[in-house]
Amino acid sequence: MKGFKNVVYMGLAVGMLFYSIPKLQFREVGSLPMIFSVIWLVMALLIIAAHLHQILGVDEEKRKQQLRINRMKKWQMEQLVQGRRKLLQFRK
């Protein structure tokens, strides 16, 4: 379901892009309409790229790796705490 939502939003962004490109003004260099058009185009492409990034699941491997790192850190902390408990019990 999560991937479907990203596909729909990316489709809407692409449709919006195709609808607006003929209306954007790129003729007069340095004019306000041209600056707006360039900024709007860049933002639309960033939105499309973000949804494509989610659809392709590029972050999935990073998320799995981060989960493994977090588990290892938790295990190391548990080992450290258990070791200190043993030291405290030994000193008694």
What does this structure look like?
This protein is mostly helical and 92 residues long. The protein has three helices and no strands. It has helices at residues 2-20, 32-56, 58-91. It is elongated and about 75 Å long.
Rg, Å, rounded: 26 Å
Fraction in helix = over 70%
Total helices: the number is 3
In percent terms, what proportion of residues is strand?
under 5%
Beginning-to-end CA distance, first to last residue: 58 Å
| Global mean pLDDT | 84
Question: What brief labels describe this structure?
Answer:
92 residues, mainly alpha, 3 helices, elongated
Write a concise synopsis of the structure shown.
The protein is built from three helices and no strands. By secondary structure, it is an all-alpha fold.
Topology of this protein?
Layout: H1 2-20, H2 32-56, H3 58-91
